[in-house]
Amino acid sequence: MARADIAIIGTGPAGVSAAITAKLRGKTLLLFGSKDLSDKIGKAHAIQNYPGLPNVTGEELRTALQNHLAAMEIAITEARVNAVYAMGDYFAVQTAETTCEAATVILATGVVQGKPLPGEEEYLGRGVSYCATCDAPLYRGKAVAVVGSSPAAEPEAAYMAEVAGSVLYLPLYDGTPDLPAAVRVVREKPAAILGEATVTALRTDGGDYPVDGVFLLRDAMAPTQLVPGLEGDGGHVAVNAKMQTNLPGCFACGDAVGLPYQYIKAAGEGNVAALSAVEYLAARKRNAKE
Known about the structure:
With about 290 residues, the protein is of the alpha/beta class. The chain is built from 7 helices and 16 strands.
């Protein structure tokens, strides 16, 4: 796969706006997110401050955004992004299926509710992972726990059962998981991740389970967890007026960068982030010629 100019993560108003602007400026792009766009938009009864669309419903706005993307032939990649790595002159965008490359990245992931588990950040990369498909080979023959926030986590847990010595699965949703018999399903709430140099156990409200690894498979991740080295600011991504983060070539916009959580604000910031990415690419091209 050829390296894209811009990878955009998120299909809310910020991500859609960034994608439209990037396409208008002639850049190649990858847009990661749901084809249904934002659940938050769909649930809105009425939106009264979006210019030109008085009293529009959330469903109407979502349809309008989807139609705009379709008219501009902007495709959405629905693979969940598990990590974004700054590689110097490009970014590696890792999903469960593949790793894509982009010269710049725009984070439009929205706000992820809830705090990380105690021990989660401390043991990230030392027994804590967000992608079972990516890191399963590291746990061949070992004991692991998989925490799934939705049924979308089940295929990764099933794959882990083919590799790991034992798999404990904790579903955080209703319904019966469709998993191989080798996977032990426990309906308990994770409370903390324990360890020394590496992970040694997962603590739940029902007790401690000795494991070598804990896989946290959430539908969404906080940007600071998604991108190693990214600076945060009170639960949001730290950016300047150009939507630039502390990582050169990485931009963020929308709810991910702070209040107010407004659709029009998010769309405007998506436009700014895309223009800043275009400017960054142009400056890098000029520098390469000098």
